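Problem 12. The chain below contains 210 residues. Write out its predicted structure in token notation.
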Amino acid sequence: MTPKPRSVTAMLVAALLRPAQAVDLLPTDVIAPPPGITTVQLSYLSSRRGDLYRDGVRQPLDTRLTVDQLLLRVGQAFTWRAHPSFAYAQLAERHLEPGGALSSLERGSGLGDLTLVLATWPYADRERGRYAAVAGYVTRPTGSYDARRTLSLNTNPGENRYQAAVQAGYSHRLGSRGNAMTAFDVQWFGDNDGYHRGTGRIGTLEQQLL
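Solution.
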């Protein structure tokens, strides 16, 4: 029995559009801010996903998804146990635009989930520009979400589940005009009990530790 084209598309889209595999960092995020300051940061990020591969072979479908985000971050720097520390709350306005073979599917726009973060720097050498940081993240499912938007392609700005992460990062100044930065993280995910999973029925989306 030959699968219906809609079902094939749904399966390929599910393989292409996985949840994020890491906690996003902006440039200079691993550099410790001076204690006692309050920060307000507005950032714009744009990413594009496409070129679906299965078993190492590029699939012929022209599947694309463009995600534009306007991020508002409000934070406070302080000293905790003699170490520079920083806490902030972040909220995003997100726009998801399917393209190519997915252009007929519904777009998604609205507020994303609220993220709360606490970071501390066990090592901070401001004179040499070297920093090692550890941070904890908690994301609450406060964003716009509709289970019907997950039938063929999940274009919800929010994820309808709790998330938590622990991240370690290191930044090293390179001369007077640049920095090298690296980071590693572990993420935990709650269950999303309003997800179609390509079956036409609402079920539960589970994700293993990353």
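Discussion. The longest strand covers residues 63-80. Students who got a different answer should revisit the alignment rule from Section 12.3.
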